[in-house]
Amino acid sequence: MPIEDDKTVVENGKQTAAAPAAAEKKKGGGVLMFAGIGVGAVVIGIALALFVIKPMMSDSGGGDETTQVEKKDAGDKKKSSKKDHGASRALIHEISNIVVNPAGTGGSRFLSASFGFELESAELQAEFDKKEPIIRDALITILASKTVQQLTDPKQKEIVRFQIKKRVSQLMETEQLAGVYFTDFVLQ
Fold this sequence. Notes:
Elements: E1 8-11, E2 14-17, H1 20-58, E3 67-71, E4 78-83, E5 90-100, E6 111-119, H2 122-130, H3 132-144, H4 148-152, H5 154-172, E7 177-187
Antiparallel strand pairs: 1-2, 3-4, 4-5, 5-6, 6-7
């Protein structure tokens, strides 16, 4: 009797007919195993995302400090910020859309910047409202006197921040200016 490769198997000297389904089970089992590994990897990835990565991303670092920002004006010029460190209340006055040509560019480049000034009293907030055109002029003058190199160097940018704080404090005749923040800074 001729031996066919697919249908006859020799075991312990005896020839028996093998079912073609046995070969199919081996092929199907391999595919099923790889499918199971793929599903397991997806499940592990989802578990990692939900229980490890998501809590790391949502943690803001401090945890005990909350900040609320309230818009006081439809013009988006004044903002109030309250921190949970005791009963202190810091006010932020925003001056936006200062556009200048940096020194030495001949009008081919421009800087668009906005600033937030941290104030220590509500009275100073009212003064800022009254003197905003004078403060805007000082900001334009300081920024327009800087070169592109000075505006892009982080150390020089801190010097600009200090110059702005000093000049605005002089204009406001106060030392209650707690901080100056760049809220927008686009140089093209």
